[in-house]
Design goal:
This protein has 141 residues and is α+β, with helices and mostly antiparallel strands. The protein has a single domain, classed as Alpha-D-Glucose-1,6-Bisphosphate, Chain A, domain 4, CATH 3.30.530.20. It contains three helices and seven strands, in the order E-H-H-E-E-E-E-E-E-H. A seven-stranded antiparallel β-sheet has the order 1-7-6-5-4-3-2. A hairpin with a 7-residue loop joins strand 5 and strand 6. Helix 1 crosses helix 2. The longest helix is centred in the C-terminal third of the chain and has 22 residues. It is globular. It holds the Pfam family AHSA1. Belongs to the AHA1 family. This is SRPBCC domain-containing protein.
């Protein structure tokens, strides 16, 4: 497979700084993605958590923050259970557009870990779902 990158773009009615907090602050991440074990910090490992049926924490996705250029770019290694620990890369780019922010996600490295097409389709649909939840979480109350 030659090009297995997933690229998504969403326009948000918020400043880049506000969007940055939704990408890096554990409480804001929980509002639209998954609960994080801590705020994301440059060079540090992170885990995004869910609950098992008995209420115990379980890692849904995890990796390391590889680069933080606040508030314009965030790069993380990223894996999920079906990848069996193989790491991919998620890059978030925040651009000022009009009175808001264009947020672009690029999820790369899927071909390198030999991810099956069905997994890429599931990740693609998952990012769509999370972007919808992000829009909803950022709406003024």
């Amino acid at each position: 497979m030659t090009d297995a990158a997933i690229t998504k773009t969403v326009f948000l009615e918020a400043s880049r700084e506000t969007v940055w907090h939704f990408l890096t602050d554990r409480d804001k991440l929980a509002m639209w993605f998954h609960r994080a074990d801590q705020d994301l910090r440059d060079g540090e490992d992170y885990a995004l958590l869910g609950k098992t049926d008995d209420g115990a924490d379980m890692k849904l996705c995890w990796g390391t923050v590889l680069e933080m250029d606040r508030p314009s770019r965030l790069v993380c290694s990223f894996t999920v259970q079906p990848l069996n620990g193989a790491m991919t890369t998620v890059t978030w780019t925040l651009d000022e557009v009009g009175d808001g922010t264009r947020l672009t996600l690029q999820h790369t490295g899927l071909a390198e870990v030999d991810a099956p097409f069905s997994l890429m389709m599931a990740l693609d649909a998952g990012w769509d779902e999370h972007f919808g939840a992000l829009r909803k979480a950022m709406k003024p109350q």
